[in-house]
Amino acid sequence: MRIRPYIANKDYECLSKWIDNERTHAFWCANLLPYPMTPKSFHDFLEKNAMDWTDGAYIATENSGQAAGFFCYSVNTENNMGFLKFVIVDSTKRKKGYGKEMLNLALQYAFQITGAETVQLNVFNENILAKQCYKKAGFIERNIDKDVFSYQDELWSRCNMVVSKQSL
Predict the structure, then answer these.
(1) CB-count exposure of residue 131 (10 Å: 0-12, 13-18, 19+)
(2) What are phi and psi of 115, to 5 degrees?
(3) Cys-Cys crosslink for 139: which of 30, 80, 134, 149, Cβ 3.0 to 4.6 Å?
(4) CB of 119 within 8 A of CB of 131?
(5) Which positions carry the signal peptide feature in this UniProt record (predicted)?
(6) Against a cut of 0.90, is the pTM above it?
(7) What is the pLDDT of residues 37-96, one digit of tens each?
(8) Which among 167, 111, 163 is positioned nearest to 139, based on CA atoms?
């Protein structure tokens, strides 16, 4: 597996297919984007996050070049803390180790290239498979904010997870 910058005209079509229902969409972006997502809404969102948070968007590919996952990453240079966002793996590749492998590459990039000392992410506590994947990649729960997101008739809790350079 490899990671490379997201290329809008090449990668959007694949990525959009991985988000094939409202629940997956809400787990992925906390409804910060409309569902269904459009290329314009997504690319405008990426541009805004790049300007506001210096987020970079990345694609994980199989060695063949086929897109297998996506994430955004930024680093706060004042405290050397990286932040992973909008992590998703191709729906046909879930539960096969792709997520852990992609996260390992993202963490290598964060620690070795951007100089981060720690990397954090947020995940809904109800997104059990994602939480398991993050734990396998070395993330530990730091805190949980109860009932902060409303999805249909449910209230979801947000879990902040962190991994440090020294722990890997």
Answers:
(1) middle
(2) 75, 15
(3) 134
(4) no
(5) none
(6) yes
(7) 999 999 999 999 999 999 999 999 999 999 999 999 999 999 999 999 999 999 999 999
(8) 163
